[in-house]
Amino acid sequence: MAAAGVMKSTESTQLPVLGSDDHHDSVSKKQKRMISNRESARRSRIRKKKHADDLIGQVSQLVSDNKYMAINLRDTTRMFLQMDSENSVLRAQLAELTHRFESLNEINNGFNSLSGYHEHLFLLPYNNMLHNDQHFRVDMFLN
């Protein structure tokens, strides 16, 4: 056995080596605890590094997703503006065609209302000539 005041070097710490078994058990427990703490710290560093790597991966994925969404939003906005412009043109054309249709309906309704009073309004001057012998005679064309 070693003397009571002799120091024994273990790794980075110096522990007094005493002759008693209690002290030897105490040193052994302390060494086991130090080894366990180192292993626990190593596992903790590994977990932290893995967590940091996972976060970096998530950031990269989110940046990529954000770029994709920004491009998609830009394209969708451009398409919306084009369609909105085309829609405005079509609405203006619809208003113009509706106005023309209403005007034609008014004209048609006017003709229909006149035909109730005079059967062949445009043929009236010719009808009068046919019925009036003084103005129109068939034999005048035969000479």
From TrEMBL:
It is found in: Nucleus. Residues 27-90 form the BZIP domain. Its main location: nucleus. Keywords: DNA-binding, Nucleus, Transcription, Transcription regulation. PROSITE patterns: BZIP, BZIP_BASIC. GO terms for biological process: positive regulation of DNA-templated transcription. Signal peptide: none annotated. GO terms for molecular function: DNA-binding transcription factor activity; protein heterodimerization activity; transcription cis-regulatory region binding. Residues 1-52 are annotated as: Disordered. Pfam families: bZIP_1. GO terms for cellular component: nucleus. SMART domains: BRLZ. PANTHER family: BASIC-LEUCINE ZIPPER DOMAIN-CONTAINING PROTEIN-RELATED (PTHR45764:SF71), BZIP TRANSCRIPTION FACTOR 44 (PTHR45764). This is Basic-leucine zipper domain-containing protein. It comes from Cynara cardunculus var. scolymus (Globe artichoke). The lineage of its organism: Eukaryota, Viridiplantae, Streptophyta, Embryophyta, Tracheophyta.
